[in-house]
Amino acid sequence: YELIVVKRFKDREIDNLIESNGGKVIILDDKPIGTYLYYGINESEGEILAFLDDDDAFVSKKLEYVYKYIFSRDNVGYYHHLAYIIDRQNKLLGKSFGGPYKTIVLDPHDKRRVKYTLNKYGLIGSLMSTTVIRREVINNKYLGQLKKLVTGQDTFLFLASLSSNYLLIHEPLNLSFYRIHGQQASLPWDHHRRRR
Fold it and tell me: Which among 63, 81, 85, 160 is least surrounded, fewest beta carbons within 10 Å?
């Protein structure tokens, strides 16, 4: 795996920890979120891109699962899953959220099924920390547009994936932790639907 951290401040201790583990640190001035993603993606070399916001976390086997069981198939370009809800102290607040509680596989060429699914569930791709894409999906055309985004980057990646030749998969698996606190720019649409 490669680790790329894009942030707007230097912290010698954190930066050294990242770099001593083979990661790269990119420091930018205060920019829109899309610019941070643009530079992180542009700097990366991997075929599969998994995103993680600074206040969230992955479950320990997420990357292994995604790589072995999802993207081992050449026809998958987008993967999305659910997240546990946690508070500042890592206390579990709810079982999961972030999309439908059923497995969905979308072929972008099947316009009828895509329309039906969007009408029934809305946009499946919410939360960056639950989104994984194949690099080819976010080609140069979309990468340039991503740089301009102030918000909605998760939705953007979902829609870009619908324009690809790859399958989109959503699974009701909790593979990330989403932290609820007062400093978030936004809360997911269904944060109030907590399952215990």
Answer: 63
